[in-house]
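Final paragraph of the annual report: two paired records, presented back to back.
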Amino acid sequence: MMQKQQLEVEKVETDRALEELKKAGPDDTVYKNAGSVLIKAKKEEVVKELEEKKELSSTRVMVLGKQEARVKENLKEVETKINEMVRGMQGGAQPGGAGPKPKAE
């Protein structure tokens, strides 16, 4: 779930970067991250990379969403089975009839 949130934040940041790049003129200098430094890059290449990153993030968010839904469904099934077992144990238990009998001395 945290991974999904991180991807959603990454997607929003990528959207913002794309918006800013669209504002930049054709002659404006553009830089991109390369580890801990910035390097000069062509605007078209940076836009293409960011769009690919955005698409990948969207796909991963969708996949994680489906996985989350499956896990929730499985948890509901397990919860239902546990509740049925608990009800069965409560209904079938007789007072004083369960457990080991004390030893006679």
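The closing record of the year follows.
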Amino acid sequence: MLPRIVKEGHVHRASYVVLAAMAACSAPKIQLGDPQQEISAMLQRSAADWNRGDLAGFMSDYAKDSLTSYRAGAHMQYGWQPLYDRYQKNYFAPGKSRDSLSFDELRVRALTPDLAYATARFTLSRGDSVVASGPFTLVLQKRGDRWQILHDHTSSDHE
């Protein structure tokens, strides 16, 4: 039964509270953005971090937990820290030569307002030569105002 909101031509103050509460309950809880644009910007920044030698910046796009997963070929890695350690050893160790990273052909599909998957291609290049390239798929979750990678499956064109 709805509360009586008009009495002698006046709206009761409590009725405003009820109406405001009803409006708040019907309002969307998650702000809808543009996942394609947001994830594209994230990957551009990520490549720039890589190219500057900023491993912490590059890794900030991965969810920092033990369930974050990475697959490349037959290699399967679980956990943010082991993935960080792998990148540190293979690409960011002092004196290591690191190739320039770029991403293209990005396609994003939003599954829910805070879950998406993306497909794209990576290219590692040294000067004018392509050292490695291939497709990858990301499963991402929006946490707060940024997307984070839950799973990364990267393949090489040479597999």
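The two ends are 67 Å apart (CA to CA). This concludes the annual technical report; the extension proposal builds directly on these records.
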